[in-house]
Amino acid sequence: MIGRLEEQRLLRELALSGESEFVVIYGRRRVGKTFLVRETFGDDFFFSYTGVANVDARQQRAEFAKALREHGWAPVGGGSEVPGNWFEAFDALRALITKASEDERLLIFIDEMPWMDNKKSDFVPAFEHFWNSWASGQRHIMLIVCGSAASWITKKIFRNKGGLYNRTTRQIALKPFTLTECGEYFASRGVAMNTQDVIESYMIFGGIPYYLRMLERRYSLALNVDRICFAEAAPLRHEFDRLMDTLFTNPAKYIHVLEALHAKKMGLTREDIASLIDFGNGGNLTRILLELEECGFIRRYKPFGNGKNKALYHLTDPFIAFHLTYIRHANNEDFWSAYIDNAGHRAWSGYAFEQVCLAHIGEIKKALGISGIHADISSWICRGSGKGAQIDLVIDRADRVINLCEIKFTKGPFEIDRAYDLALRERIEIFRSETKTRKALHLTMITTYGVKPGKYAGVVQSEVNMDELFR
Q1: What is the dihedral of CA 352, 286, 329, 245, to 10 degrees?
Q2: Who's near 268: CB < 8 A, 6+ residues apart?
Q3: Strands 141-147 and 21-26: what pairing?
Q4: Of 124, 223, 340, 450, which residue is 20 to 30 A from 10 by alpha carbon distance?
């Protein structure tokens, strides 16, 4: 198993805790939540069930009862095999558990729990009652719950205002692979890739193990992308639609928000988004933004020097960005192979590499030797003073230094010529003037192959190359 060492260690510790445990694992769909649990515990579950998408409440309870029967439950007195409501369903699970020895640790795994909560269902209050009134007092029970609908997990469990408030004993937010883990994963499968290939794969698939598993070692990266994303029967050709349909009941407005953010690479404020899309009342937009953020598709951040009301939202999921840029428009099966030397590809690469860097801030800080120094991460844009200017990444450090980071994706060492040298110096002075900062400003170049030594390279005070993003 690649990565997930800390998560596995925690799960194994909890399995031996001797206390009742309620563990929630959440994260983006396809990130490997179920795989983590099953690789950690194998089939060593007293009871397990996976919620079924797009069925009504009765059919969901029927499938739950079927799983109970497979684990040894039988209706009392020959009663109905389909519980009439979720209270009866969890009573059946309680009866099944009660028959087991209290000297044995019982692992209960409920996967895709959000799918079990149908509209107007009594699922949540029944689950609350099951856990609070009985299961939480059983020291031999460890309950593991997973769900891809992070917004449901957050609203119905973490922020629950009723019986589930503050009831979880552990929460595990499972993240996509890092670049290092992507490289290890490819190597474990015999897929030969150099450092730049691994980064480009991340720019497309975003470190999602389910997607990376589809790359075959007999093909180049470009041919793999064509086969996975653009061929007529490509497995990810309609993945975006599946994601939206399985995560959101009415996905249209969620898609509109993602499209708006995709069109505006520097990000949009909440007010900007509201002006572009008709959401009716404001609370609806607030909920949509929160749910997209909790799913890991967008991020909210405060631009350098601006107050809370100026917070910007960014599209950060690489695969969704790749879909909106290329997959949804392409009708050529070898599109990517033919496109890789196109000027449009170079423009896309620059922005996509920025997103890779933002996902690896820890590695960038380590490369700069400032891992132990607290820093606020943001970007900066200025449209005043008659001249526009922007900084890709601002690292505002507690030691009174600000790293102004320029991010460049090239296929060789990046060369700074006289014109770019002047532009950089002007940008730094505009930043100093507009922000009124008294901190020292260090220009940092984050590039694929480093900065080429030359007459104008002296403007750069620190560098990070792509190899250091893997450390």
Answers
A1: 110
A2: 260, 261, 276, 312, 313
A3: parallel
A4: 124
Amino acid at 236: L
Residue 176 has pLDDT above 90, yes or no: yes
Q: How many CB atoms lie within 10 A of CB 347?
A: 11
Residue 158's pLDDT is: 82
Q: What per-residue confidence (pLDDT) applies to 70? A: 92
CB 48 within 8 A of CB 68: no
Q: How far apart are CA 449 and CA 393, in angstroms?
A: 19
Tell me the one-letter amino acid at 111. D
pLDDT band of residue 381 (cuts 50, 70, 90) is confident
**Nearest-angstrom CA–CA distance, 106 and 100:** 8
Distance separating alpha carbons of residues 328 and 294, to the nearest angstrom: 24
* Distance set, CA 349 to CA 90, 317, 346, 411 (Å): 51, 15, 5, 11
Helices (H), 235-342: 239-247, 252-263, 270-276, 282-294, 318-322, 335-339
Whether 270 shows a pLDDT value over 70: the answer reads yes
User: 287 CB contacts (<8 Å, ≥6 apart)?
Assistant: none
Cβ atoms within 10 A of the Cβ of 273, count?
19
3-state class (DSSP) for residue 253: helix
What is the average pLDDT value for the chain, to the nearest integer?
91
Please tell me the predicted confidence (pLDDT) of residue 384: 61
Predicted pLDDT at 137: 93
Per-residue pLDDT, averaged over 440-455, amounts to 96
Region 236-253 average pLDDT: 91
pLDDT of the residue at 21: 95
Q: Which of 202, 210, 211 is nearest to 179 (CA)?
A: 202
What angle do the packed helices 86-98 and 123-133 form, to 10 degrees? Answer: 30
DSSP state of 303: P
Specify whether the backbone of 18 is left (phi greater than 0), alpha (psi in -120 to 50) or beta.
Answer: left
Contacts 24+ apart (CB under 8 A), 323-330: 323/239, 323/240, 324/240, 324/258, 324/259, 324/262, 325/262, 326/229, 327/229, 327/230, 327/236, 327/237, 327/240, 328/240, 330/230
